[in-house]
Amino acid sequence: MKSVWQPVCCFSSEIKHRVVYVGEKHLLVKMPLAKDLLNPTLDFERRQHKKKRLVQSPNSYFMDVKCPGCYKITTVFSHAQTVVLCVGCSTVLCQPTGGKARLTEGCSFRRKH
Fold it and tell me: Between vectors from CA 72 to CA 82 and to CA 79, what angle results, nearest 5°?
């Protein structure tokens, strides 16, 4: 009969890391127990909800979309809820989805600040 070792987790106060014991051996897992909430990483801030960020900011923005046919520039909202057509040639520039609008293939865009 095989014996199966279950990992037991304990916290080491001296090194501030989580230590996992498996049988007689132990592994040091580099998972810090303390987080710096005043200086979050950019990746962490981007994944946060818009109201739970350190400084609240919306996920939506306006962008200039260039039509691949006539090269006219149209201003489009990133979360547009209707189909946006080109003013010059009536080509579909973006289609709505549940969240952000999906740009048509071949369209280039620039985010407005």
Answer: 25
Sequential DSSP letters for 5-40: PPPEEEEETTTTEEEEEETTEEEEEEEES---SSS-
Using CA atoms, how far apart are residues 71 and 50, in angstroms rounded to an integer? 34
Alpha-carbon 18 to chain mean position: 27
Q: State pTM to two decimals.
A: 0.62
* Residue whose pair of structure tokens reads 């127990």 in the numeric block: 33
Distance CA 107, CA 76 (A): 12
> Mean pLDDT for each 10-residue chunk of the chain (113 residues)?
50 52 62 81 91 92 94 95 93 94 94 88
